[in-house]
Amino acid sequence: MAERPITNELGFKTTYQLFLEKERVPAVRAFHIEDINKVELFPWERMGGRGVYLNLEGTEGVNDCYIAEIAPGKLLAPQKHMFEELVFVVSGRGATTVWRDGQKKQTFEWQEGSLFSPPLNTWHQHFNGDGKNPVRLLAMTNAPTVLNLFHNIDFVFGCDYAFTDRYNGEADFFSGNTKALSQHYQETNFIRDVRTFELIERKERGAGGRMTLLEMGNNVMSAHISQFPVGTYKKAHRHGAGAHVIILKGEGFSIMWPEGKDIQRYEWRAGSLLVPPERWFHQHFNAGGEPARYLALKPFSSRKFPGLRKQWGTSESVKQGGDQIEYEDEDPRVRRMFEEELAKRGLTSRMGDVYGTRAA
Ligand SMILES: [Fe+2]
Prior knowledge:
10% helix; 360 residues; binds fe (ii) ion; 4 helices; eight-stranded mixed β-sheet
């Protein structure tokens, strides 16, 4: 995949690119990240800690990530901005204080595996609650889209509008309460640990998978957590750009390909981060000895605030004009590749029962 150029044909840069240059912290431009625990971090003055931006190719410039580290016993600088963010705690424990100017502050605690979203344009400040170990946070944001839309950095970081429809100081906002919007959709603003959060069986994507879709912080971004059993793989599918897939548990690999082109294979384990490019088919294989679980952080994917979901893909077969490849329509190399990988590891396929499952 050709790397996106920094300047366009007239020599202009995006406002997001100008912002990155002002941040004076590097941005990793890569296809995927092998281990988010090990990405090198750099001093980051605005944030008051160390960090790095991640601009993965599959985002197509729609969204981004940053990793921020809080030194033992320390805190980051307060921030407020007009872009949304979903914050995943990679390691460590601590707390975040959220407030608006002149209003009461509220603080909630988190730990490794927690997921939360500071409400749009509120002040928020992160603290390390451990005097011995650093905290590592990974945040997925829609800063690129918001900065490029208004092309004014001062506005994005200096707007005073209070989005009280999203958050109005509710005392239980970060309590971790969940509200079911449907069988698979939960609304919540805080998850203590995405690695153990309860998931619901979902047959559409095959392989005895379980998943929960998450609406958080009244955002237009959303997330889901998905798990699939030992000896199985999911059906191939495609959708829009920018879904950041963080492997939480297990070992395996994914294949990805643009329609009509050759497949590319990526190995993963807990801590790996993949972003399937826009409309590329992708398919996940569990090649390890435990269920594989991942967290997907997705831009413009809310169903509570519809209207921005474009090309997000369906669970209908490509034969019906959808975006999923049923097991029986797969390239025979797919099944072979999986069985060979399992054999290498002394494992056997448990796909016998699931090859017959069809989209509902
Ligand atoms: Fe996907």
